[in-house]
């Protein structure tokens, strides 16, 4: 471990401010180099103003996807005001048509051009309209919900197994990141809302090294693991340690983490753009194991998750530092009194959390794709997992994550897939109603 | 760079209906967090429920009053659903549950299964008729300089800001009343209030309903100049309302209003200046989309600095801070 550099409180806060300023300056300078890779895809506009976006072209576009698979080669025609143009969806399922102005258009998906086995979930909705009063921004999105061709569905039991394996994979992946959340909460009391951005960080590092630089994915994983640890360390050193010194209250610190999450998220958007990046690293071959179809990427991801989780478990129970971590988690004052360097333990926890989150990010990138807000999308599921298992308990986080992962995937057997995250969050609320301390939590943790 | 236009747009934001809607939502959040100490991270859900609760009945042919009442009743029901499991728990559980519920309602209105009611991802439009019909202002364009709008735009602004004023007076009177003293007591020390025989749970629930109701009215104002789009109600909206509330001061009367004005004027100014600089070639390496993103990076950094260095906001009193958890 790097020895903590002793700096005065004022110096630390100045360092932090300088870091923020340097970050902003760096981003303005760096954007020139990266703007070439920035996409022209429809930019997410978080709060459309009345005037809308200021780009000069008007486009109608969307992404065609069947579940998690992107649909390429399908044709979409946009007609209106004497204008007709057809776009074909690309490898990332994306299609877009530049239109002459803010008029009324009809958007029609040519069902014949969809791949075999993919069809509209609702056959009556092959076309959609765009009204002239909808042009609040210069980009309008139209989606065509696709579903599996119902004539080819397999039996319920096969589907159940398929979803079960997918859920287990997703749950293990959430567990990697959630253990970091729960360790940070246990040792410092902080609910870190910027944890999703640590996950995105790992995914972006892996995407840059494996896709842009062409390095082997396993090397990229190790790079992400190391840089993630460095990122966690910097988080603690530049921000959280000075704030602990300053005596900032926990709720205050939680809102600071929200601010950090917003800043980092838009920083990622600034650099990599708003479109989804595909991770074509040769791990998407399907393997058939009995009734279950699974990609090699998923098998590797599950195996790695289990190995890493076992290692983390051994670290926490068998090593001196791990025992010290649990001691700090139980009672920081008592731990400090018995000679444990609490600040050092917290630093180690941040490095560990950063690495695990980055690893989860790489696996999430293999499971879905890479996008600027991917970590934030799963942040709530991680919180749900941690709360379900009992805040502050590492084993609880594991159990909670697997419950959430299985629930997300298995719920799609009964409800529309676009509600699967909602279902997991509803379960969180119901569990809090009947067992507020979570599955493995201790009762005194509840206020 | 057209400075006149840039400043004109920025000044126009001071009285825009969006500013009024955010101010109203921040007043509601102020009741939750500033006065009662509830960590509500789901204010966006109340705006969403106000918006859909108003738009769906209106599109089904309901009169204005019925639609507004429907929006408010829906938000009260939602506050109960939110409050019953969580108000007995520690503050950070409420934070996680409110943020989760806000996402749940957003997933629900976006699901394709409900397209006939909510328009799914495309949202709803064409609900402005009943509100425009009660507009007493004759047709035409009024005002001067940057404040030139047609009759509908003035009507939305007037109604929006009258509601903001009424809400501020309501909060001012409530917080001077015995009810206000009890909720402020809950913020400071729940157990002390409980020992006086007050039902803390019930007071918290009332505060949640009141602030949520203001949030749903803000939701109606927010959609009157635009269409309902589910993508507007992400957690980002909640965090912007938090930034506005903390900027002005959480437990203050004018804080949310001034906070909202500053927030939108600064956003409009930075957008105008960045876009102007890009057009004039001074920042040619940036794209306009990236310039828009820089503003939100700044919002995040501003929120962090604000909470660290001036948690009481512009108007706030450091003694009245609900950061004691």
TrEMBL record, chain A:
Its main location: membrane. It is a multi-pass membrane protein. CDD domains: TM_PBP1_LivH_like. The keyword NADP does not apply. Keywords: Amino-acid transport, Cell inner membrane, Cell membrane, Membrane, Transmembrane, Transmembrane helix, Transport. It is found in: Cell membrane. The chain crosses the membrane at residues 164-186, 198-231, 251-273, 294-316, 348-367, 379-407, 419-435. It comes from the Bacteria. Belongs to the binding-protein-dependent transport system permease family. LivHM subfamily. This is Branched-chain amino acid ABC transporter permease.
UniProtKB/TrEMBL annotation, chain B:
The keyword Transmembrane helix applies. It is a multi-pass membrane protein. Pfam families: BPD_transp_2. InterPro entries: ABC_transp_permease (IPR001851), LivM-like (IPR043428). It is found in: Cell membrane. Keywords: Cell membrane, Membrane, Transmembrane, Transmembrane helix. CDD domains: TM_PBP1_LivM_like. The chain crosses the membrane at residues 6-31, 38-56, 62-84, 91-109, 154-175, 207-227, 233-254, 261-278, 290-309. PANTHER family: HIGH-AFFINITY BRANCHED-CHAIN AMINO ACID TRANSPORT PROTEIN BRAE (PTHR30482:SF10), HIGH-AFFINITY BRANCHED-CHAIN AMINO ACID TRANSPORT SYSTEM PERMEASE (PTHR30482). This is Branched-chain amino acid ABC transporter permease. The lineage of its organism: Bacteria, Bacillati, Actinomycetota, Actinomycetes, Micrococcales.
């Amino acid at each position: 471990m790097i020895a903590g550099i002793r700096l005065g409180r004022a110096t630390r806060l100045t360092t932090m401010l300088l870091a923020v300023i340097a970050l902003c300056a760096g981003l303005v300078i760096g954007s020139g180099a990266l703007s070439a890779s920035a996409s022209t895809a429809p930019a997410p506009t978080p709060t459309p103003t009345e005037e809308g976006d200021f780009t000069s072209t008007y486009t109608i576009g969307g992404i065609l996807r069947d579940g998690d698979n992107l649909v390429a080669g399908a044709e979409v025609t946009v007609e209106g005001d004497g204008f007709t143009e057809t776009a074909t969806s690309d490898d990332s399922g994306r299609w877009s048509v530049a239109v002459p102005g803010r008029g009324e258009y009809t958007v029609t998906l040519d069902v014949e051009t969809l791949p075999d086995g993919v069809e509209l979930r609702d056959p009556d909705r092959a076309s959609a309209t765009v009204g002239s009063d909808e042009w609040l921004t210069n980009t309008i999105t139209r989606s065509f919900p696709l579903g599996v061709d119902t004539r080819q569905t397999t039996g319920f039991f096969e589907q159940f197994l398929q979803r079960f394996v997918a859920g287990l994979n997703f749950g293990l992946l959430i567990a990697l990141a959630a253990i970091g959340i729960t360790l940070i909460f246990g040792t410092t009391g902080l609910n870190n809302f910027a944890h999703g951005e640590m996950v995105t960080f790992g995914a972006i590092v892996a995407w840059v090294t494996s896709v842009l630089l062409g390095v082997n994915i396993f090397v990229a994983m190790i790079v992400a693991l190391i840089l993630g640890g460095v990122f966690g360390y910097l988080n603690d050193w530049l921000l959280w340690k000075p704030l602990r010194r300053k005596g900032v209250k926990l709720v205050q610190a939680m809102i600071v983490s929200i601010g950090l999450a917003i800043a980092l998220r838009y920083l990622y958007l600034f650099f990599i753009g708003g479109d989804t990046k595909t991770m074509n690293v040769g791990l998407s071959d399907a393997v058939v194991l009995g009734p279950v179809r699974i990609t090699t990427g998923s098998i590797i991801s599950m195996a790695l998750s289990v190995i890493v989780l076992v290692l983390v478990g051994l670290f926490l129970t068998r090593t001196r530092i791990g025992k010290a971590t649990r001691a700090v988690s139980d009672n920081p004052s008592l731990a400090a009194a018995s000679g444990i360097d609490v600040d050092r333990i917290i630093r180690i926890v941040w490095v560990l959390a950063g690495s695990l989150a980055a690893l989860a990010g790489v696996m999430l990138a293999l499971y879905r794709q890479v996008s600027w807000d991917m970590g934030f999308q799963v942040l709530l599921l991680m919180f749900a997992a941690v709360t379900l298992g009992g805040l502050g308990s590492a084993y609880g986080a594991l159990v909670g994550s697997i419950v959430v992962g299985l629930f997300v995937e298995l719920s799609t057997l009964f409800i529309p897939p676009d509600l699967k995250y909602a279902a997991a969050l509803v379960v969180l609320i119901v569990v809090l109603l009947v067992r507020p301390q979570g599955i493995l939590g201790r009762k005194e943790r509840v206020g | 760079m057209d400075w006149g236009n840039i400043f004109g747009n920025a000044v126009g934001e001071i009285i825009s209906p969006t500013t009024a809607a955010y101010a109203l939502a921040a007043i509601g959040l102020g009741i939750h967090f500033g006065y009662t100490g509830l960590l509500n991270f789901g204010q966006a859900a109340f705006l969403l429920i106000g918006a859909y609760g108003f738009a769906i009945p209106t599109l089904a042919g309901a009169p204005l009053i019925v639609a507004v009442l429907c929006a408010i009743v829906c938000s009260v029901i939602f506050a109960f659903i939110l409050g019953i499991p969580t108000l007995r728990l520690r503050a950070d559980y409420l934070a996680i549950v409110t943020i989760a519920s806000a996402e749940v309602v957003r997933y629900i209105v976006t699901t394709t299964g409900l397209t006939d009611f909510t328009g799914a991802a495309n949202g709803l439009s064409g609900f402005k008729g009943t509100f425009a019909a009660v507009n007493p202002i004759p047709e035409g364009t009024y005002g001067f300089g940057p404040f030139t709008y047609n009759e509908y735009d003035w009507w939305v602004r007037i109604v929006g800001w009258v509601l903001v004023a009424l809400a501020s007076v309501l909060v001012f009177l409530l917080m001077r009343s015995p009810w206000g003293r009890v909720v402020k007591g809950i913020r400071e020390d729940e157990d002390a209030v409980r020992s006086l025989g007050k039902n803390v749970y019930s007071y918290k629930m009332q505060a949640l309903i009141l602030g949520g109701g203001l949030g749903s009215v803000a939701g109606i104002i927010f959609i009157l100049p635009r269409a309902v789009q589910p993508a507007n109600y992400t957690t980002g909206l909640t965090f912007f309302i938090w930034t506005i509330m903390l900027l002005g001061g959480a437990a203050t009367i004018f804080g949310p209003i001034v906070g909202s004005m500053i927030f939108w004027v600064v956003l409009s100014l930075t957008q105008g200046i960045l876009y102007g600089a890009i057009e004039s070639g001074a920042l040619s390496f940036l794209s306009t989309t990236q310039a828009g993103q820089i503003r939100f990076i700044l919002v995040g950094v501003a929120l962090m600095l604000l909470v660290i260095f001036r948690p009481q906001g512009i108007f706030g009193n450091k003694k009245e801070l609900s950061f004691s958890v």
